[in-house]
Amino acid sequence: MEGGRRFKSQETMAVKSVTQSAPPPRSMASTRTSFENPKIPFAVVLLLADALLVSLIIAYVPYTKIDWDAYMSQISGFLGGERDYKNLKGDTGPLVYPAGFLYVYSAFQYVTGGEVYPAQVLFGVLYIINLAIVLSIYVKTDLLPWWALCLLSLSKRVHSIFVLRLFNDCVAMMLLHASLLLLMHQRWNLGLIIFSGAVSIKMNVLLYAPPLLLLMLKAMDITGVLWALAGAALVQILLGLPFLVSHPVAYVARAFNLGRVFIHFWSVNFKFVPEQVFISKGFAISLLVTHLILLISFANYRWCKHEGGLLNFLHSRYVSTKLRFALFFSSSPIKKSDKSSSSSIRILTKEHIVTTMLVGNFIGILCARSLHYQFYSWYFYSLPYLLWRTRYPTLLRVILFMGVEFCWNIYPSNSHSSLLLLCLHLIILWGLWAAPPEYPYAQHESLTHKDE
């Protein structure tokens, strides 16, 4: 009995160390029902108005031929039986996306017949679905004032990316936003499966992976984390199976190539950097190091502040996991009751989940060597949230938003616009760093019952 109590005491101390700070009192706004929230009817009206705008864009704004024909050429090869990624090519070059892209765009080709106009209509529907998901995230986090939701529909560039360019970034980000909405509702396993599906469309979604892993470690025990990761990995294996069986090296090398060097001319950011420096390995490594330093700094001083820092949090999770295994293999007669009572319930707040994910992605955007115009969709929908997470005055928030949109609408980009974009990103990042971190846990139950 004494050994069992010692295990219980040590594990309780380990968990208490990751929840040092007491949660702040809940605000009245967070207790409002959905029927009392004025943002919901406003979001519905905004969605209908944007649907009308998308219809007008499709009807009256000329389509821009960029990647759709190339996508269809790559899909034709796949549907024709080609399974070697080296032989799947289009007008813009070889196929460089994972297998999920082929399945999704094969379905698009079947629905649209490969024609541009029905594809635009289809992407218009995708745009509205994506916006509805994003609005749901914003309404549930209840961070922005109602009028600021309009910012989500004010991007000329994003409308163009969806219905005038038909990029696969649109599909990937729609799935990512759906995954984020599931994570907000503590649906971690299903959220990871949808997240993996988004990665299978385009690998930029992996920018969310580091903060997502940290959130999983907070919300689940190590067994739950491993099961969720296994499910995500299984999605990648199943989708890539036809290529992994026949030409595995070509598939992995092409679909998951992390070393691609983008053309300097098309970059929206770092255009002020000389081309020879831009394409150099040293510049890429310096950005990667900066990326890692920023992620670790935010994880230690912001995302894990209430747990005593990143190292303390990871150590606590290690101790907790170690004690769980010790209890599992213990011969103590109270092993079963200890095991059942040692299940930790840590429900993360919606705000903490969204903030951690969006800030982690934004750090990746800041440190990306090259951002093409379609890459704006990777973080545009997070901008209002990130700006309202800062303590900046509302006027400055709006100016920063408009400044970023202005930079993305300059074509072609130049050294001045790219330098301005970097400065705006740094100002936003500083505001996020200076903002007080929210308490991460909505509910926390002790790992142990009181000794009788």
Can you offer a commentary on this structure?
This protein is mainly α. The protein has one domain (32-445). It has 19 helices and 4 strands. The protein has helices at residues 2-16, 39-60, 68-79, 99-112, 116-141, 156-163, 168-184, 188-199, 209-219, 222-246, 248-255, 275-278, 281-303, 310-328, 335-341, 350-366, 383-389, 394-408, 415-434, and strands spanning 89-90, 93-94, 345-348, 441-445. The strands form 2 sheets. Strands 1-2 form a two-stranded antiparallel sheet. The protein has a two-stranded antiparallel ribbon with strand order 3-4. The chain is globular and about 60 Å long.
Q: Could you give a short description of this structure?
A:
This protein is an all-alpha fold and 452 residues long. It has helices at residues 2-16, 39-60, 68-79, 99-112, 116-141, 156-163, 168-184, 188-199, 209-219, 222-246, 248-255, 275-278, 281-303, 310-328, 335-341, 350-366, 383-389, 394-408, 415-434, and strands at 89-90, 93-94, 345-348, 441-445.
Keywords, separated by commas or semicolons:
452 residues, mainly alpha, two-stranded antiparallel ribbon, two-stranded antiparallel sheet, 4 strands, globular, disordered C terminus
Strand composition percent:
under 5%
Distance between the termini: 13 Å
CA-based shape: globular
* Main sheet overview: 2 strands, antiparallel
Helix content: 55-70%
Q: Structural class, from helix and strand content?
A: mainly alpha
Order of SSEs: HHHEEHHHHHHHHHHHHEHHHHE
Helix count? 19
